[in-house]
Amino acid sequence: MASPFHEKIGTNYHPLDSEIAQIKELLVHPRAEIKRLDGEIAQLRIQRHEFKEYVAGHKALISPIRRLPPDVLREVFLACVPPRENAVMSAREAPLLLGHICSVWRTIALSTPRLWSSIHIAEPHPDLAPSFYDGCLRLVTTWLRRSGALPLSISFHRPTFREESPFFDAIAAFSPRWKHISLSGQSRVMLSREDVPLLETIKISDYSVADNVAEAKRQDFLGGACVREVFLGTEIDPLQLPLPWSQLTTLTLARLNNAYARRARQLSSSAALRILANCHSLRECVLFLTHEPDELLDLPSSVEVPSLASLKLSLDVFAIPAHQNPLDRLQLPQLASFIVHGRHQPTIFPFLTLLSTAKMLKNIEIETLMFTAETLVAFLQRLPPSVQRLSMRQNVIDPETRSLVDNEILHLLAPSSPSESCLLPVLDTFTISYASSFSDDDLLRFIRVRMAIHPLRQVTVRFFRLEETKILPELESIMDDFGLVVSLDYLTTSSTWNPRDGSVILFS
C-alpha cells in the first residue's frame, strides 16, 4: 500500500505534530479492514472446524481398525502389554486402557485371559484414603479372575514391612496358578510346594522369616517341582532353605534388601561352593559374598558345574589368603561370561584356577580396585584366547587412586611387533571406565594395531582427565570401512561452571 511516509518507515525518524495527525488519519481505513478480515477469518475457521469434524467422523466409520476380526484385534491388544514386565494397574496403560475405548473393545479385552495373566501390584500406602486402598484391593482379585485358568506372572511391592497384607492374601489365593512371582516388602510366604505346582521363577528381595530356620523349612514353596529360577535377598543360610538345587538353572543370592533389618550376614565363599556343588543344571549365577572369616574345612577339592555359562561375583574384602578362596576350586567348562566386582587387592588374584578351566570364556568384566599393577597383568595373561569382550572399570574416582590400565596393558593387547605374542587375539569389544592412565595417542595406536590383528567392533573409554589429542578424525576412515564404533568421554575444561550455584560440570 502506498504511503507518503514510505521512505521514513523503518528509520529513526521523529514525525512532526502535524505529521502525527496525518499518520493517524492514514490508519483509519486499514484498521477497519483488519477488523473486517478478522471477522471473516473467524467465520471461516468455524466452517473449517465443522467440515473437519464431518470428515473425521465419517473416516472413523471406515477406518481399518473397525474392520479387524476380533481374533486379530485380540492379538493387537496382546502386543500392547509389556513383553518383559508385568502389566500395571493403571487406566493409562493396557490392559485397563483397552476397556475404556468402546464397548466392543471392552468386550474383547475382558474375554482375553492372556491380557490379565500378568500384574504388577504396588500396595498403596496405608495413609492413603481407605476407599482408594479398598478399590485397588478389589481390582487385584477382579484382574486375576479375568485370567481364567492361565499361569500367572505376579510382582508385588510393599512400601512397609508390616507382617500382614490383604494384597498378598489376595494373590496367595491364586497360588496354584503362580508361574513367576516377585516379592518386595513381603518377608514371609506361608505356602507349601503343593500350593505352587506351576511355579518356575521366584524373586524375593527381603526374605528374612525372622531369622527362624525351622519356620523357613516349613515354608517349602521354594522347593516346588517346577522351580528353575531363584533370586533371594536373605539373611538366612541358603543351605537351610528347601531349595531344589539340582534343578535350578538361574540363581541369585543377594544381600537382604531391608533398610530396617540389622546388618545381615552375607554368604561365605565356602557356603557358595557347597551350594554350587549341588547345582548340576545351573546356567546363570550371581553371588554376593561376605567379608567375614571363611571356613575351609570339609570342602570338596574341586566342584564342576558343567552347564554354568554366566557367573557374577560381588566380593567384599577377603578375610582369607586370596589363593585359598574356595570358589577357585570351581571347574566351569561352559563358562562364557565372568563378572567380578570388589575392592580388595590380594597378592594373587583369587580365581586364576577357575579361569584356567574356562576354555570357552567370551565376556570379562572386572573392577580394577581388586588388582595391583602386577596382578592385573597376570590376570590378563591367564585369560583364554576365546575372550571377545573385555571391560575394566574403576568405581573410585579421585587423583589419589592409581588407574591401572596403562600403556603396558595396551601393549600386551596390541604389541608393536608382529613377532610378539598378542593377548586375546579375537577381542572385538574393549571398554574402560575411569581406569585408564594411557594417553590419547596410545589409544590411537592400540586401535590401529588391533584392527590389523582382528577387527574391533566397539571401543568405549571414559577418562578422568581432559582431552589431549582429537583422535576421532584420525579414526574416521577405519570406522567407516569396518563399522567400528568409538565412544570417548573426557573431563570438560575448567571454564564449565554454573554461575548460579557455583557447581562444576565434570563430564562432557
TrEMBL record:
InterPro entries the record matches: LRR_dom_sf
Domain of life: Eukaryota
Full protein name: F-box domain-containing protein
Organism placement in taxonomy: Eukaryota, Fungi, Dikarya, Basidiomycota, Agaricomycotina
